[in-house]
Amino acid sequence: MAACSPPSKRRRKNHGEYTNEESSSQPPVVVFAHGAGAPSSSDWMIRWKDMLKNALQAIEVVTFDYPYISGGKKRAPPKAEKLVDFHKDIVKKAAAKYPEHPLILVGKSMGSRVSCMVAAEVDIAASAVICLGYPLKAMNGAVRDETLLQLEVPILFVQGSKDGLCPLDKLEAVCKKMKSINELHVIDGGDHSFKIAKKHLQTKGLSQDEAEDLAVQAVVSFVSRCLRGK
């Protein structure tokens, strides 16, 4: 894991402020947002939901479908900004259901962008954001870093080294400019959904499951340090 800056205090009390006053002994509640092309019921989402719930010992991992993907019809997603209010409402309901539990926001691809936008809201007290395949590069090639540079909540990027939507050199440059605590875990040979070619796995002496297990361990380590305030 490459760290752009070390984790320190654990959760935001007011905007840009973290405190260790609350005990981190309570298991977290996780709100997990899907990517642009597949709903929360996709095999990928279900598998990662189960892995995160078990690894983080979460009291609940809340998944949901954005309105554009509901009803079984596949439509193109709107701009990420237009999904913030819906996503934020889901987050606020989860936080209200488990008020004594730390709040962790997780997103796949587009869902990670929207999770960051939600985490930047003043009335959302997330302890950490986990981005699984952050889509840093827009279709026109522009680097979409505006939200990341504003964010003050600790953030972990889990990225495949062969992810065309997030060149690692560009992400590392953004990390250096960010004011929030941030870390990067690279899945060597992984694409945008972390799939690794068989030849690459053979060269590394790993299986797909082992590579993803290492990523999940990185998530657990990051979240644990955020909650401990270390």
Automatic annotation (TrEMBL):
<feature type="domain" description="KANL3/Tex30 alpha/beta hydrolase-like">
    <location>
        <begin position="29"/>
        <end position="223"/>
    </location>
</feature>
<dbReference type="InterPro" id="IPR026555">
    <property type="entry name" value="NSL3/Tex30"/>
</dbReference>
<protein>
    <recommendedName>
        <fullName>KANL3/Tex30 alpha/beta hydrolase-like domain-containing protein</fullName>
    </recommendedName>
</protein>
<dbReference type="InterPro" id="IPR029058">
    <property type="entry name" value="AB_hydrolase_fold"/>
</dbReference>
<dbReference type="InterPro" id="IPR046879">
    <property type="entry name" value="KANL3/Tex30_Abhydrolase"/>
</dbReference>
<feature type="region of interest" description="Disordered">
    <location>
        <begin position="1"/>
        <end position="27"/>
    </location>
</feature>
<dbReference type="Pfam" id="PF20408">
    <property type="entry name" value="Abhydrolase_11"/>
</dbReference>
